[in-house]
Write a structure and sequence with these properties.
By secondary structure, the protein is an all-alpha fold. Helices cover 91% and strands 0% of the residues.
Length: 127
């Protein structure tokens, strides 16, 4: 039966066409997968580099924060010392001004007292 063989040959040719298409589709998928895998590897490498950079920057930030905290504390100590010193200096100036004022008053009023009275105020004369 020749028609049966012809029909089988036709079906074989159709099946071969499907097979060829199926193989091409699988090859295309494999090519796309390989390209995707290449991109995954590149991104994983970039991710690793960024994580390392982030670790280094985080450590650096911690060191800077620690240094900054010490310097701010020291600066606050300086501020306190400066304020205390300035306050003490103002008191010294005020005391000096008061002392000068008192001495000037006594000096201006001592013209009317005798040498003995001056000796009591200033002490005995040098010998």
């Amino acid at each position: 039966s020749l028609s049966c063989c012809v029909a089988m040959a036709k079906q074989g040719a159709v099946l071969q066409g499907y097979n060829n298409e199926l193989v091409k589709c699988i090859e295309d998928l494999c090519t796309k997968r390989d390209e995707l895998q290449r991109q995954v590897v590149l991104e994983e490498e970039e991710k690793t580099k960024i994580q390392n950079d982030l670790r280094i920057l985080t450590e650096r930030l911690a060191r800077i924060n620690e240094s900054l905290a010490k310097k701010l504390s020291l600066r606050n100590d300086y501020d306190k010392t400066i304020a205390e010193t300035e306050a003490a200096y103002v008191k010294i100036l005020e005391s000096s001004q008061t002392l000068l004022h008192v001495l000037k008053e006594r000096s201006s009023t001592s013209h009317g007292i005798g040498p003995r009275d001056r000796t009591l105020m200033t002490g005995p004369p040098p010998t």
